[in-house]
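Hello forum,

I keep getting stuck at the same step: I have a sequence, I want structure tokens, and every attempt I make locally crashes halfway through. Rather than fight my setup again tonight, could one of you with a working pipeline run this one for me? It's a single chain of 226 residues.
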Amino acid sequence: MEQHKKGSESIQDMVIGMSDGLTVPFALAAGLSGAVASSGIILTAGVAEIIAGSIAMGLGGYLAGTAQVNHYNAELKREYFEVDEFPEKEKQEVRDVFKDYGLSEKLQNEIAEEMSKDKDKWVQFMMRFELDLNTPDPKRPIKSGATIATAYIVGGAIPMLPYVFFEDSVTGLKFSALLTLIALFVFGIFKSKVTGQPVFTGALKVMFIGALAATAAYSIAKMMGV
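Reply #2:
Ran it on my machine without issues. Output:
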């Protein structure tokens, strides 16, 4: 169960990083393609955005993971204090948990008394069933930040790749759009399976959002006549 939880968290981080990595640099490149003719300028700006974006996203993942660990530790400390200072109140909370499961009052009392003999297990029970908190992986912040940042870089490299081979920005944009839309559709399939959404409609939705962002950026650049 714990392995499944950790795996789910890693997949969630990868989805977050890849989703933004595919969409943001693609929209940036499309917008610049409507303003400049040189693929070199677009490639330079795109690489800079990918580096900055991966750092920002990775740092966000790290801070979120750190906040989760700190919150758990604070609640754990509070639970230890409460079982020491208010044992009868905490026993009643144990009884209330099993009351909700339909156990008899006799069993509720027996379980509460038996559990109170082991403070560590008692606290862990309260953390899980009263507060709905699982023990976080202490390495979670670093893993989360690294996964999100790496996925962002991988996703961002896809729309920028054609600009390496074509000097004309419009030609680069055409191939970038084709390659990115395919990648968005494939990623949408994966994301839909992970989140339990209808696969085909979920993939189309992801592809449409990416295309819409790029079209808007390109159109704005053209209208401004940059």
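Residues 2-224 form one domain. If your local run keeps crashing, start a new thread with the error log.
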